[in-house]
Structure formats: C-alpha cells, structure tokens
Amino acid sequence: MEEALVQSNLQGVPLLKRGKVRDIYDLGDSLLIVATDRISAFDVVLPTPIPGKGKILTALTLFWLHFLEEKLQVPHHLITANSEEYPEVLKPFTEILKGRSMLVKKAKVLPVECIVRGYITGSAWKEYKETGKVCGIKLPDGLREADKLPYPIFTPSTKAEQGEHDENITFEKMCEIIGKDLAQELKELSLKIYEKASSYAEERGIIIADTKFEFGTIDGKVILVDEVLTPDSSRFWPKEEYQPGKPQKSFDKQFIRDWLKSTGWKEKEGSPPPIPEDIVKKTVEKYKEALYRLTGQTINI
C-alpha cells in the first residue's frame, strides 16, 4: 500500500522529476526525495518492484552522509529524514514517507557523475580489454576481470536522461564541461570519500568495487547530493568470496542484471520481463544483508 501511494503523485505536492528510482518534489525552498521500490537495469525501469528497497537505500544513504560528515567533514544537502518534521503540505503523507524519503536543500546539481573504481569490472573491464585504458587512463597490462587496481581511479561520466546511457568521459572532457578547478575539486573529494568508505566497508566484509557520486553547489560551495554508496550506485562484493579472474557474487543489482541477461531480453527490444518471485526475494535478501553488514541495522519488510 505504501509503495502504491508513493509510486503515484503525492496529491497537492508539485512533482519536479520522476527518475528511474527516485521521485523529487518541489517544496519551494527545499526538495523532497522519495526512494521508491522501483529497480532499473541497463537504464530501464523493470516492471516488478523490490519490496522495501527504497527504505534500504534511504537508510544506507543517511548512514553514509552522517559518516562522511563526521569523518571527513563532507557537506551534504540533507535537512532531515524525519517525516514528522516535514512541512505542513506533507503531513497527510507522514506515514508513507517514513523511512523512504529525505528533505534536502536545493542545489545546482552538476552535470557529471563522479565514478571511482578500485577494481576492474563492468564497463571498465570491457574498455580495458579493447584498449588497455579506462576513460583515457592507461592501466597495467595483464589485469584479470575483478582484479584490484594498483590505486583507485577517477572515471567520470555524463548524466543521461532516463532510457539513455551515461557516457564515460575523460577527466579532460569533464574539465571542459564544468571547468578545471571544479573538476579537480570533485576528483579529489570523490577519491577521498571512496578510500575512507571502502576501508570501512572492507572491515565489515564488503568490497566496494566501484561507486558513483553526485555533487551540487550552493552559493558556489560543493556539497554531496543524491544517494550515497548504496547497492544501486555501487558494486558491493562479499569479501570472503572474492576471487579475481571472473565475475563476482554481489550485494548489488548486478544480480538483477545477470538474471535479465539470462532471459534473452535485449536492450531497446521491447519491455523487459517481470521479475520472478524467487529473484525478487533473493534481491531483497542481498540488499538487507548489505545494510546489516555496513550499519548493523535491520529492516522488516
């Protein structure tokens, strides 16, 4: 019932944008971000929701925002995630927004995604096999799939509209888009966040293979926005099962991507199939375990 309500518009509240997973509402001097239970793969929203996923993503993002603010003094856009403290217009929705929403400051969101990779996998592995490089960065010869890189690398991308693919770009191209000084600031901050977070996660049995951050500015000051270090924005691997040289087991939506590939569905060839109940259940379990390992929190779904 909760998810059915937040899938549609909150009556009387202006919907600013409906993303693949998040709905954003305009409250005038602030925004409301609602994490639904929708799941996407290959930049397409799948027809079957993952129960409780929005609450897990929100809980993880809140944990990391507080962690990074405390450990690295990283500023962010969060005002409050307590739905009882939301503006009057949201009072009718207090219960359905509880645990799956954030009230945030309005920021000028920058038109690039800041991706940090500590391991070679995904699109980076494909590019490396073809060119020996990732986003213009030359990597050592002889790397295997899922190998740990000698050091984390910063590989930005453009931000595509729903249904379109983000495009990997070089750091030089990023400088052209947003300016050299700002690009350098985002690169250094992204690497600093990744190194701190990945060290913390590894102590708790999770390898963060790669992740993406989004940033915005308020009065010229850079702040962290959107979701942070979740299974939707990162590749999480169980440390105890890590074996380079092949695809890894994961706590993230790679599980859904692999299932979708196995169905024979091809991108841009009609709507993707519904997700079977057993795949939904296993996906929920993976997301819940990631939350528990990283934060000690449990969520009843």
Describe this structure in words.
It contains 8 helices and 16 strands. It is α+β, with helices and mostly antiparallel strands. Strands 8, 9, 12, 13, 14, 15 and 16 form a 7-stranded antiparallel beta sheet that branches. A hairpin with a 2-residue loop joins strand 10 and strand 11 (137-138). The longest helix is centred in the middle third of the chain and has 24 residues, at 180-203. It is globular. Residues 1-6 have low confidence and may be disordered.
Task: Fill in the keyword field for this structure.
single chain, 301 residues, alpha+beta, Phosphorylase Kinase, domain 1, D-amino Acid Aminotransferase, Chain A, domain 1, 2 domains, seven-stranded antiparallel sheet, five-stranded antiparallel sheet, 8 helices, 33% helix, globular, disordered N terminus
N-to-C SSE series? HEEEEEHEHEEEHEEEEHHEEEHH
Tell me the number of helical segments per DSSP (H or I, 4 or more residues long).
8
| Low-confidence blocks of residues | 1-6
What is the CATH top level name of the largest domain?
Alpha Beta
CATH topology label of the largest domain: D-amino Acid Aminotransferase, Chain A, domain 1
CATH superfamily of the largest domain: ATP-grasp fold, B domain
Global shape: globular
Largest sheet features: 7 strands, antiparallel
The total count of strands amounts to 16
Distance between the termini: 13 Å
Q: What is the helical fraction, as a range of percent?
A: 25-40%
